[in-house]
Amino acid sequence: MLSFPAAKINLGLRILRRRDDGYHELETAFYPVPLKDALEILRNSDKTTFTGYGLPIPGDPDANLCLKAWQMLRNDFPTLPAVQFHLYKNIPVGAGLGGGSSDGATTLLGLNRQFQLGLTESQLIEYASRLGSDCPFFVLNTACLGTGRGDVLEPLKLDLTGYTLVLADPGIHVGTAEAFSLCTPGQNSIPLKVVLSQPVAAWRGQLVNDFEEPIFRLHPRLRVVKETLYANGALYASLTGSGSAFFGIFAKDRAPSVNPFRERMNYRILP
Length: 271
What we know:
By secondary structure, this protein is an alpha+beta fold. It is built from eight helices and twelve strands. The strands form three sheets. Strands 1-4-6-5 form a four-stranded mixed sheet, covered by helices on one side. A four-stranded antiparallel sheet has the order 2-3-7-8. Strands 10-11-9-12 form a four-stranded antiparallel sheet, covered by helices on one side. The protein starts with a strand and ends with a strand.
């Protein structure tokens, strides 16, 4: 079975408070974007294996979320067979685009479908929340308001298909734990849904990612990435997740066709 785990961007990300369980209470909007990995799941007669291709995946391959998702289901479904995972990595790693979370959630969806486990959407979301805070979103893979750890989801009527999206990935890995350690929680003055109900051109200055300023202090050259997107006509530009990728939302067909950045970085125009 072949699936295509999609990336996401965060439209606003407010860190409201630190919870008693060690996580942070968040408010964000998740939005899927057409940048995808490719994941193939094949039945295996021996043991479950994972092979990665494309962009390098740092860390221990045995800790990959695809394997964790399989093991989680195997614990509850002992007849689940061994499989081979072949993952072609196209979504940059450690960029705030949710690629690893998407791979894990897509594994749950694929195993459920391929081996007829009969899990409902709500059950899949519960499994996904055990994999990671961003994973439940990728079960739904539609615009959602995320609260709690980001795992409490409410579908949003939000459609950006009339715009052009530009992703700029400077290739700096920002660890999530490090990013959270740099932030000071605080209340959101304007509810996110109120901001998002306004035209995209009105989001600038109101739709805030709390990770931006601390990460700008840690990596000052990243501020230039956002400024360059605005200088080239973006209606709205922001860091996504805890970074380090940025996105710009442009009027349709108004994105610069030539990479405007002086530094070498991954520059993609998405429909």
